[in-house]
Input
Amino acid sequence: MAGALVTSEAAANDPAAASEAARCLARGGLVAFPTETVYGLGADATNADAVAQLYLAKGRPSFNPLIAHVADLAAARHLARFDERAERLAQAFWPGPLTLVLPKTSSCRVAELATAGLDTLAVRVPATPGASGILRGFGGPVVAPSANRSGHVSPTTAAHVRADLSGRIDLIVNGGPTRIGLESTIIGIFDKALLLRPGGLPRADIEAVLGERLADLPLDHRDGAQPLAPGLLASHYAPRTPVRLNATHVEEGEALLAFGNSAISGADRAVAVLNLSERGNLADAATRLFGDLRSLDGKGARRIAVMPIPEDGLGEAINDRLRRAAA
Ligand code: TXA
Ligand code: MG
Output
């Protein structure tokens, strides 16, 4: 029962960890594991009870579907139908921080609850040895949302997972800090290829392989009654402390999340200051973003002021998460 479990921990580089995690998944348990993006909270995708426990442990609304994680493209083809565009993207970017939303196959055994009744499935092949070992050991699809309580900032360390989910899940596999630090980019392959969620793989890389521009989510699907990416509600990824974006000065009682090395007025009176990247590097900023938001959230500041971040490359996903944190 959620809230009453003893959560054990294993090191991802311990050869026994993958088999322990696989056994735990096979008996319907919940296992947090590191991917290159953020930590995921895994459950056997074909076990409806395990999936129900997963929603409960996260406090996640059950209309928000999950990503199925598999070890390789061959395994993904059993679950979802790949057209030529999907095939090309998978070949180019898997394993890696790309999730594809595709029509389910008729033999797809992923529990209905995990797809919230949609006839599409989100699928991805994560790139860390820790995740691959678990997926190969388990031998079936693993649904895994980010391993945080619903609405919180995604976890980029095992300590973040512990803080949110200890006592509510069975096992945490600790692989150290995640390399990318932002969730995967989600692409829906419909008539057009749609960017459903900007993430750890920049838009331009995907467009270069597709040979066409990605369409953005139609506005009426963003927060509407039938969202194409149901989890993309405005207030997601939110620290408890209010967030103020594009700050060009620091106000009384604010903590500062800086970017770059330009001076900003009032920084000397900030409750706390963290810099996403002094040299203005967006990949470094992505890696630090969620951890820094969590840290500043604990400083008792009235508000977190965030300096402007350029919109190019990973900046699109960073700004997307910051806008949600501020919503
Ligand atoms: O990097 C990631 O993607 C991480 C790691 C653990 O793999 N996972 C992750 O999962 O971010 P989650 O559940 O926090 O976000 C998945 C998003 C949600 O916004 C959900 O609504 C959307 O994917 N999604 C899942 N299935 C979908 C579908 N069939 N159609 C559209 N959106 C879908
Ligand atoms: Mg999430």
About this structure: The longest strand covers residues 39-44. The mean pLDDT is 93. The chain is about 30% helix and 20% strand.
